[in-house]
Every structure is written in C-alpha cells, then in structure tokens.
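Hey, I'm writing a tutorial for new members on how sequence and structure tokens pair up, and I'd like a real worked example in the thread rather than a made-up one. If someone can provide the structure for the chain below, I'll link this post from the tutorial.
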Amino acid sequence: MEKNNYKALLPIGVFLVLYLGLGIIFEYGMKIPMGFYSIPIVVVFMVAIMVACFQNRQLSFDSKLKIMGEGAGDKLIMTMVLIFMAAGIFVGVVGRGSAESVAYFMLSVIPAQYAVAVLFIAACFISLAMGTSVGTITLITPIAVAVAESSGFGVPLCVASVIGGSMFGDNLSFISDTTIAACNGQGVAMKEKFKQNFKIALPAAIVALILILILSINSDISGTISNDYQLIQIIPYLLVLIGGIAGVNVFIVLIIGIVSGSVIMLATGATAATDLLSNMGSGASGMFETSMVAILVSAMGALIREYGGFDALLSVIRRIFKGSKGGQLGVGILVGAMDVATANNTVAIVMANPIAKEMSDDYGIKPEKTASLLDTFSCVFQGIIPYGAQMLVAISAAAELGCTISAFEIIPLLFYPMLLLLSSLVFIFFVPAKK
C-alpha cells in the first residue's frame, strides 16, 4: 500500500471531530450534566471504522475484514480485554464502601489541622488500591466537603487535593484501566512500568503534599470528622497491591483478590451470598465499553496502518521531534492531545498505543518507558481539563451536598497534576536514562 498516505488518517479525524464536537455541544451548548460522557463512544468508533472501510478501493471488503480481525485478535489486545474483565470482577466483589474506611480511619488518628493532607494521602492510597480515579473521587469528595464545612479549609482546596491524589493512584495502580492499556499496548510487565512511573510520580506527590501542608499551617481550622470504618475490608486491595509490586502475574494477583474479597465480604456480612455472583457480573459489565473500545480501536488501527496512515503520521513526528528525548516528548504530546480531544485517558492511551509503539522502535525508547509516558501524560491532562470525568464528578458530588464550586476554582489548586508534568519533563530532559 501507499506509504505516507495522509488520507488514511481520516477515520481518526472523523472520530475526534464527532466526539469532541458533540461533547462541546452537549456539555456547554445544551448544558447536559456530564455531557461528554453522554455520547456513546462505541457508536462514534463504529462510524470511524465505516469511514475506514469506505477508503482504499484497491482492497475488497473481505480483505478489510481480515485485516481488522487480525488487529482486534492480537494477543496483546485479547490479554488486555481479559485483564479488564478480571479487574472489573474484583471491584464488583470487594465493592467501594471499604475505601471510605481508609479516609475516616486516617481522619480519626491525625490532627484536624492536617485534614487536607489526609484527604490527599487517602485519595492516593484508595485510587492505588481500587485502580479508579473517578471511583475514588465519587467516594471521597463528600468527605472533602464535610472536612471543609467543619473546619476553616476552602472547598476548592479540599476537592483539588482529592482529585490530585486520585490521579496519583490511577497512574500507578496495577488494576487501573490506564495501566492495563499502556502495559499491554506496549507489551511490557506492569512491574517494569510501575518502576518507571513511581520515580516520576513520587517527587511530584511529595512536593504537592508539602504545598498542601504549607497552606494548612496558615489556615484557622476547627472541628472534627468521624464515622464508622472497617479496615478488614481493605485486605483484598492490599493483597493486589503487594502482589503487583512483587511482580506476580496479574491474573494470579486478581484471582487472589477476588477469592480473598469474596471470603471477607461474606464473613463480615457486607455482601449476601446470593448477591456475590451478581456483583461479579456487574463488575465485569462495567468494563464492557472499555473492552469494546480496545477492540474497535485495534481494528481501525490495523486498517489505517495498512493504508499507510501511520507511516504518514510518523514522518511528521520525525521531522518535529529529534533524538530519544524528543521522541519521548512526542509520545507525551501525542497521548496528551488524544486526551484533550476525548476527555478519557484510557481511550487516549488505546488510540495512541500503536503509534507510540512504532515511535518506541524508531527513537530507541524502552517499551516500559513508553508505557510510563503514555499513562503519565494522559493522567496529567485528564487531571486538569475542566470537562474531564474527574472534574465533573467532583463538582457534581459537591453540588449534591449543597456546595457550588466551578472547575476554574479548583484548577489553580491542582498541584499534583501540574507537578507531575514538571517531573515528567525533568526526567525526560535532565535525568540520564539507564541502559
């Protein structure tokens, strides 16, 4: 097929225009709450695939189906889908109520003056264990509002600390869909990607925590926050976290989490035996859209590659970005642009994966480094954009409690995502890569 065929990139353009355009109309024109997430992304991808199928008359439709089948049936894609399903079942089993226990436990043992720092640390741990920033924000934002109301801390600072901590865990978690997508897309072990990510994320988190503490020390606070908590329900999360860090196969780790979670939830009476299988099914169903996106993007990407679209895009990237450091920045900008357009860091990673993999080969970037860059830069942009699910869920959760805040009150206080971007650039340009 023709090399450097820019027309082959049309399906990506169609998807971005439709998704971003409709998102803006729904969110800001029609004022639909969570408007960006009212758009059926699977349907938009189907439209983009139809555009790809109508291109290139030299290939028969059967040949195009074969190419898409080979792309969707790739071992890494199937592994990704299976891990998505297993992670969904795990979350369905253990539930999310135990995450609140972590926050309330910490608030009960740490002086109220440091309550915002507690919110940040709790959000870091909970999202690291649960693998979801949106889920963490949904659970912890009501606690953040309660902290603000019972003390002298501002609601925007409390909510921003929750969002920042949630993005820390989402970036590093072994069961986060972003981690699963980045690692399987680049064919690397999660442990190796975690090592790359941790040394970038930890300095950013520490500096963010210091800034929060500085603001806390200068605040006039009063009051306390207390509630019941059951720390035993955290055990499955800890087992998954420890197993992942130790390098145990992700399927084994998730099976251990599912089994231990089932035993604990039944033993404590948190879940009835009749509801356990139903919860597993609900958890797996919650991963349906993410799994379908991975399959559809792979099918569409296979056609675009066959038509010469990736060669065209890579030729542009090579002209702009020079050397390994430039290539790393290019990967970050690529996934960041996808995230700004889709407002979904998992979708952004899945879309950027095949191009980033070829960039990794071209620029001599280690696959684990590429996976780390994809996850990190997508989390940076997703944590800051005012129309992202994280921001919208936080604002909505606060509004339900009678507290009205805007994204633009929160954004200046999002220390962690901004520092994560700075840390990423420092590691790209100033820290020598290990050979």
